[in-house]
Amino acid sequence: MSYASTCHCGAIGATISGDLPAEAMTCNCSICRRKGTVLHFVPAGEATLEAPADKLGDYTFNKNAIHHHFCLVCGCTPFTTGTDPQGNEMVAVNLRCVPECDLDRLKLTAIDGASF
Ligand SMILES: [Zn+2]
User: Fold this and answer.
1) What's the 65 CA to ligand 1 centre distance in angstroms?
2) What separation in Å is there between the alpha carbon of 63 and the centre of ligand 1?
3) Residue 110 and residue 116: Cα distance in Å, rounded?
4) Which CATH class is domain 2-115?
5) Which of 27, 89, 95, 114 is placed for a possible disulfide with 44 were both Cys, Cβ 3.0 to 4.6 Å?
6) Around Cβ 44, how many Cβ atoms within 10 Å?
């Protein structure tokens, strides 16, 4: 099975192999608190990105380790990309952009990203 996280207009997105997760993370860092993302991290090899260069916004800050992608057409953030502390390429899926994900049933873990 797979599931897809897509922006509102469909220009960008990520298709993830595997089942929808039952758990996700919220984060209080300066960008997550503004965007309200609900994140699930997967190895980059499990994600197929739809990311045309003329539609993909890329915002970085701090150590520029995470690419906070967004759609240049509709503004949504279906995924971000980056590397974990071990250097592995990761994709953070924003489960708010997965229509079939029941957000109210997710077990959420709050990450104190503001202190990183
Ligand atoms: Zn869009």
Assistant:
1) 23
2) 26
3) 13
4) mainly beta
5) 89
6) 15
